[in-house]
Task: structure prediction
Amino acid sequence: MAIRNVMLATDFSPAAEVAAEVARGLATEVKARLHVVHVVPPLTDPAFEAERLEREVSRLGMPAEAALRRGRAAAELLAYAREQGIDVIVVGSHGRTGFSHAILGSVAEQVVRLAPCLVLSVPATYALRPSEHAAVPQPSPVSRGCLVCAGDTEELICSACRERIRGEALARKMDVERAGRRGA
Result:
């Protein structure tokens, strides 16, 4: 099987940074074209994200196709893979479980299940062997936005949005309990 096109799906998170190094190494090893794809959520201004995508591509230190898409992440990544004839998708996995997985879902999980090609899911905890660390340029710290409100934060979800999500979940639970008491 020939691998000609490798796609890195990035959300600029630490998990995606680890996956980027793996994708770069794979593309270099098999002499494949590297595609770096980022999906902007609906109703979000893509201008800032375009700059971040360009910085990510230049950080990789090799020629790569940069693609900025808008919409639901998994659906857009899968569409790009089909359109470009991608042979391998490399995606970072945050390892979310429980409530955060239920609220946010898992883009990596959806891509693995529905991809038209091979998918390499790289856990955020994956570490390169010590000999590989010397050759890998260390990423510069990049601030990222909250996934919910797109506000400037170093966290995946800012504290205000996290509290709002918890409050809404608690309110729903209390509504269900009240409805159960009334019906009994």
Q: What stands out?
A: Confidence is low (pLDDT under 50) at residues 99-104, 136-143. The chain has two domains: 5-142, 143-184. The beta strands are 5-9, 33-40, 64-70, 88-93, 118-123, 144-145, 152-153. The chain has seven helices and seven strands.
